Amino acid sequence: xxxxxxxxxxxxxxxxxxxxxxxxxxxxxxxxxxxxxxxxxxxxxxxxxxxxxxxxxxxxxxxxxxxxxxxxxxxxxxxxxxxxxxxxxxxxxxxxxxxxxxxxxxxxxxxxxxxxxxxxxxxxxxxxxxxxxxxxxxxxxxxxxxxxxxxxxxxxxxxxxxx
Length: 163
Fold this sequence. Notes:
Strand order of the largest sheet: 1-2
Helix content: 55-70%
Number of domains: 2
Radius of gyration: 28 Å
């Protein structure tokens, strides 16, 4: 077997072990995250930890299929093995990204993070009610959008733009 392929298998194996451990830990953290009313919550095969375990087992089964295909030596099996290893690495990246997104969403919801979409900002001081003034003007309020991220500000302005 080519030395390059053995090096590739070693790199993918080290990546796979680290990502598998991280994915299992994230699945456990998501599963144990308080969801409010725990009495209605059911633990089944569709719970996050069980689904994560199934995903990791599926990943390792496909990893060994890819390794077996690489060791066969024919051109077709070589292509099949490399494609399988590449596909399962992308699968692992996607699973980790979604796990981090779910965990950050749960934490954000749990901490009560709320961004004000619209904020009322006074422009001028209200006119003082005096005996000499016939008409009292109320304070002018301007609606201003406030975002912490310039990319989302740009995207929302582009979506709200009326032409």
